[in-house]
Amino acid sequence: MNLQSKYSQLIKTEAKRLGFMSCGISKAQFLEEEAPRLEKWLKQNMNGEMRYMENHFDKRLDPTKLVEDSKSVVSLLLNYYPSETQNSDSFKLSKYAYGTDYHFVIKDKLKSLLHYIQEEIGEVHGRAFVDSAPVLDKTWAAKSGLGWIGKNSNLLSQKVGSFFFIAELIIDLELEYDTITTDHCGTCTACIDACPTQAIVEPYVVDGSKCISYFTIELKDNIPSEFKGKFDDWMFGCDVCQDVCPWNRFSKSHNEPLFNPHPELLLMSKKDWEEITEDTFRKVFKNSAVKRTKYAGLTRNIKFLKS
């Protein structure tokens, strides 16, 4: 076993110990195929008000511009599929937001992994990324053999479906690189057919500006009235294209205690949500990703669902 292979194995073993579901590694280089695709998507304004998607175009496509002298992108998946979901008489919350904000949970694990690499291997420089920097997470995870990008534009895996977070370490260490996996969507169009707002405009292309997650989390203005009655009771995020995906039959419950929801959350009915106070919001979503939309945003979404 050569050194690169040995180091790669070390990293993957430690990632597993830290609770990551899987780990794949790819060479840090310019994403040639992605460049025209991203450019076209932005030109068609599919990012809506998410103007930050237009920033750092070159960094999004080239990790060596984010981390000087970087050689490898270590992609990691962390399961968030819950063992229990909300009761049926409730406005819905995307499953990823049930527990503690994933940014905190994953950042800590990534720091531990980087620290471990430095202790075991020596002077390795790098940065940890969790969905908050210009990194094309899904593309890197697919390049690292962790799955393929499906027709709903999510990363899908034959073994575990798609209810997981994606994160990266970009480091200046040469490693053994994994190979890309094949697409297993076949002729299935379940996600396209089920999308309540027809946001999947063609296979593999999602118009972000039509997605329920965009309206309920990213959009700061009023939700356009043409979408009234089309939100299928989603008040924060949306899981429809994942819930209907046949590969998610293989989702297994996570075992990360921090992702367990506040006990009250699963019991709340529509009436409870309609009457939610700022105090209850703070208590139920103490360290949650739902804080991103704030109390005002969540109550706006609930009012829109009722109207």
TrEMBL record:
Active site, UniProt feature = D131 (proton donor)
Question: Where is tRNA annotated to bind?
Answer: K220
Q: Which SUPFAM superfamilies match?
A: alpha-helical ferredoxin (SSF46548)
Q: Which residues bind [4Fe-4S] cluster 2?
A: C195, C211, C238, C241
Query: So where does [4Fe-4S] cluster 1 get bound?
Result: C185, C188, C191, C245
Swiss-Prot/TrEMBL GO biological process terms: tRNA queuosine(34) biosynthetic process
Matching InterPro entries: 4Fe4S_Fe-S-bd, 4Fe4S_Fe_S_CS, QueG, QueG_DUF1730
Top-level lineage group = Bacteria
Asked whether the UniProt record includes Cytoplasm among its keywords, one would answer yes
Residue ranges occupied by any 4Fe-4S ferredoxin-type domain in the UniProt entry: 176-205
Q: Which pathway is this protein engaged in?
A: tRNA modification; tRNA-queuosine biosynthesis
Would you tell me the Gene Ontology cellular component terms?
Answer: cytoplasm
Where does this protein reside within or beyond the cell?
Cytoplasm
UniProt keywords, alphabetically: 4Fe-4S, Cobalamin, Cobalt, Cytoplasm, Iron, Iron-sulfur, Metal-binding, Oxidoreductase, Queuosine biosynthesis, tRNA processing
Q: Which cofactor does it need?
A: cob(II)alamin; [4Fe-4S] cluster
Catalytic activities = epoxyqueuosine(34) in tRNA + AH2 = queuosine(34) in tRNA + A + H2O
Q: Does the keyword Phosphoprotein apply?
A: no
Positions with a binding annotation for cob(II)alamin: R60, D131, N152, L155, I166, S213, C238, D239
Q: How does it assemble?
A: Monomer.
> What is this protein's function?
Catalyzes the conversion of epoxyqueuosine (oQ) to queuosine (Q), which is a hypermodified base found in the wobble positions of tRNA(Asp), tRNA(Asn), tRNA(His) and tRNA(Tyr).
Q: Which family does it belong to?
A: Belongs to the QueG family.
Protein name in the entry:
Epoxyqueuosine reductase
Q: Which gene encodes it?
A: queG
